[in-house]
Known about the structure:
Layout: E1 13-14, E2 17-18, H1 48-58, H2 67-70, E3 76-81, H3 84-92, E4 97-99, E5 106-111, E6 138-142, H4 146-156, H5 161-172, E7 184-188, H6 191-197, H7 210-249
Helix pairs in contact: 4-7
Amino acid sequence: MGKAKTQSNKHMELLGQTIPHQTVGSLSGGKCIAKHEVPYNENCSCSHRWQAFEKAVEHSDMYKLSDADLDVGCAKPMLFRGGADAVAKLAKQGVSAALSAENKGMYLRAVDKPRVGDWEVDRSKYNFKWDCNKPYYHEAHHVVPDATLRVALTDIFKTSAELAFQVMCEVLDAPYNVHGKDNMIILPMDERVGEMLQLPIHRETKQCSHGAYDLYIKDKLKARFRTALREIMKKHDEEGERLSTRTLRHPSRQSPPRATLKWPQLGALTESNPLKNLGRS
């Protein structure tokens, strides 16, 4: 019997220290920097799929098909998530499907053209909630990916783990939640769906490069963290000078200077539409 999988604590720690993580029962107010609540979980601030769904509800027109799209053709093969087991299960149900030769962990099967309302975002529907294949293969995308955020931070503050930890604590205490709906968007995985909805394709498929997107965002983040680092060092020098003056007057009152950070807002990253960098290769 295999060992039980140990739950990751990466959302609770940074560089071996505990950070001020907080899960709340609403869209706002949470503090989190790492994905750990994988399923769709309503009223959980750390559920990126729930946050993405709520964002989609606000922008439901993005997911509506035009009359022209609804009139197009008949059944066509589309990508879905699943491997050999999923294909075998469909075969038992009399549904023909085949593993995708180009995309690992995905299969192709023909589906009927959507009818009015089939692909819409609606709280009364099953779409975009518990099953990533309903109504089509989709994923909840972080505009600023959580892993990229952590890498950018540790890269810039690599000479001081203490500073990196302090900065992340202040980021979270803003409060900041990398899964907040403003940082989420539901994206399709099938190229044809993306073309119909005029949305980029998510993750690494033949038509998409998430790696290139991550590099683009990391460069933007690192630029902001470099600015923050300069502010910290300037503050450190100023406090150090004041401390030296106080020490000359009161030698017994020495204390190390503590830098503070004004968190550089990530919202500016979306102003130039970084999603265009998730486009087809």
